[in-house]
Amino acid sequence: MENRPHFKTLWLGVLLVLPQLLLVLTFFYWPTGAALFWAFTLEQPWGGGSQFVGLDNFSNIFTDRFYWESVLRSLVFGVGASALAMGIALVLALFCDRQLRGYAYYRTALVWPFAVAAPAAAVAFRYIFAPEAGVFAALNQLYPNLWNPATNGDHAMIMIIIAYSWKYVAYNFIFFLAGLQAIPRSLVEAGAMDGAGVLRRMRDIQLPLLTPTFFFLLVINLTDSFVDSFGIVDITTEGGPSKATTLMVYKIYFDGFKGLDYSGAAAQSIVLMVLVMTLTVVQFRYIERRIHYK
Amino acid sequence: MQIFRRAAMALAFSTMLGVAADATAQQRIKFELWQGLTGDLGERVNDVCKRFNESQAEFEIACISQGSYDEAVQNSIAAFRAKKHPTIVQVFDAGTADLMLSGAFYPAKQLMADFGHQVDWSRYFPGISNYYATSKGELYSFPFNSSTAIFYWNKDAFAKVGRTAGPKTWEEVEGISRELKKAGYACPFAFEHDTWQMMEQFSAIHGQPIATRGNGYEGLDAELVFNKTRFVDYVKFLKKGLDEGIFAIKEKVSGATISEAFSSGDCQMTMMSVAGHGTVSKTAKAGMNWDVAMLPLFDGTKRTNSLVGGASLWALSGKSKDEYRGAAAFFAFIAKPESEEFFSTVTGYIPVTIPGFNFMKAKGFYEKAPYKGREVALESLTASEVTPNSRGIRLGGFIQIRKETRDALQAIFSDKMTVEAGLNQAVERGNAILRRFERTYAGKQLP
Amino acid sequence: MIERTPVLNIATHAILVVGLLIAFLPMWLVFVAATLTIEQINNPPISLLPGSELIANLTAAWNRAQLGSKMLNSLFVALLVASGKIAIASLTAFAIVFFRFPGRMVVFWMIFVTLMLPLEVRIVPTYAVAANALAPAQAVLEVVGIAWLWQVLTGVKLALEWNLLNSYTGLVLPLVATATGTFLFRQFYMTIPAEIVEAARMDGARPLRFLRDMLIPLSKTNMAALFTIMFIYAWNQYLWPILVTTDRANYGTAVMELKRLIPTSASTGGGTPDWNVAMAGCLIVMLPPLVVVALMQRYFVRGLIGADK
Question: Which ipTM value was assigned to this complex?
Answer without folding.
Answer: 0.87
